[in-house]
Design goal:
The structure is a single chain. This protein has 209 residues and is of the alpha/beta class. The chain has five helices and twelve strands. The strands form three sheets. The protein has an eight-stranded mixed beta sheet, sandwiched between helices. The chain has a two-stranded antiparallel ribbon with strand order 5-6. A two-stranded antiparallel sheet has the order 7-8. Strand 11, helix 4 and strand 12 form a beta-alpha-beta unit. The structure holds D-malate (MLT). The site of D-malate has 8 residues, from helix 3.
């Protein structure tokens, strides 16, 4: 496992080489206040043996790392979303080249899921697919991307106080319109991660990763 605090174009991150050549690498993207270590156990549970790349968001909100700026809860700075999605996509492409990796499947939670969704729509070639846990629409009017053949699993919580179900449904619609194959499951859950998320993500990755 390596930890890197790189130059400005880089992200502090963890890279955990896998031991299964056939497993698609995972790009793990934490939620607000998390860091590069947060989702490593989740990655190991849902895709045993897969290579894991886990960056820390570079935006600080009252000291809490995030992947882009927001103006209030659920109100995003869209210019910053675009800029940060490109920065993260550049980092992922660089890491792919450095480590000889296939395009990863993003596994994002909350803010991490939102930046993953933005990356899919802005840089469709960088990710092989995505598991978006408690995601909402990151860009109201995304550019036309071609996501044909890209699988996406959206896991929403029916009692999520932060993400209205209609918002996650709108995101599913945006991704489907771009050609992605979207599975949207609404769990009897709130905003937090549950065992059902782990089980569904593992099952889905066994078919798509
Ligand atoms: C966000 O991106 O702001 C999330 O959806 C909510 C959060 O991170 O708390």
């Amino acid at each position: 496992m390596s930890t890197v605090a790189g130059h400005p174009a880089d992200f502090i991150h963890r890279f955990v080489p896998g031991n299964r050549a056939d497993a698609t690498p995972l790009l793990l993207l934490h939620g607000t206040g998390g860091d590069e270590t947060d989702l490593l156990p989740l990655g190991q549970m849902i895709a045993p043996g897969a290579t894991l790349l886990s960056p820390r968001g570079r935006v600080l909100e009252n000291g809490m790392p995030r992947f882009f700026r927001r103006l209030a809860e659920g109100v995003f700075d869209h210019e910053d979303v675009v800029r940060r999605a490109h920065e993260l996509a550049d980092f992922v492409s660089g890491a792919q080249a450095r480590h000889g990796l296939a395009p990863p499947i993003a596994v994002g939670f909350s803010n991490g899921a939102n930046i993953a969704a933005a990356m899919m729509m802005l840089r469709p070639d960088v990710l092989a697919g995505a598991v978006l846990i408690r995601a909402m629409v990151p860009l109201p009017d995304p550019p036309q991307a071609d996501l044909s053949g890209r699988p996406v699993l959206i896991l929403s919580g029916a009692m999520d106080p932060i993400v209205p179900e209609a918002d996650a449904t709108r995101l599913a619609g945006q991704l489907t319109a771009a050609g992605a194959t979207v599975t949207h499951e609404v769990l009897p859950a709130g905003h937090g991660l549950t065992q059902a998320d782990v089980t569904l993500a593992r099952r889905w990755l066994a078919d798509h990763g």
